[in-house]
Amino acid sequence: MKTNDHNKQLYRDMQEAPDKYSDQEIEAMMDDLDQMPDIEEAWQQFAQQHIPTERPIHTWRKIAAILFAILTLSGIAFAAIHIIKQNTGAQEMKQVEQPVIQQPVSTATVNNDTIAQTEPVIFDNVTLDSIAKEIADYHHIEVDLQNELAKQLRFYFVWKQDDDLQEVVEKLNMFDHVDMTIENGKLIVR
Length: 190
Fold this sequence. Notes:
By secondary structure, the protein is α+β, with helices and mostly antiparallel strands. It has helices at 4-16, 23-34, 39-50, 56-96, 128-138, 165-173, and strands at residues 121-127, 142-145, 154-159, 180-183, 186-189. The protein starts with a helix and ends with a strand.
């Protein structure tokens, strides 16, 4: 079978100068038209002219691989920067720290304002007898419970250990059903 381009050229020539061709040549050309075309060859020609050699699926895979590589590298770079900043900050802290030399100070020169104050003790839902016992223990005195109701009453109370014992008793006496006094070195709960 002759190529498509060759056949086209022959047909044009036949139309322009039909007397140049014999009946046998015209019959041969018609026989060529009647033959089944080679589908594989036609497909190869079509594919070469119209289908790109690289498939789009492969292109998307390449793009995805490139994006994955970029994200991975940026993650590694971010982690490295973070680690470097932490190490630099730790080194700066070491450089800033300098030994402190303390001079001995006599207690006579220290004011009450400079003495470290203790944290307050918070009693939350605690019985009155437990509160009284802890305060008495702190001040090294005994507790005399004369009221059994003190074992049942529960309070929320903030005790500042720096306060004077008399001040603490006065604060507790502000609650209803509480009557406390200090007599003969004892904390009495009535």
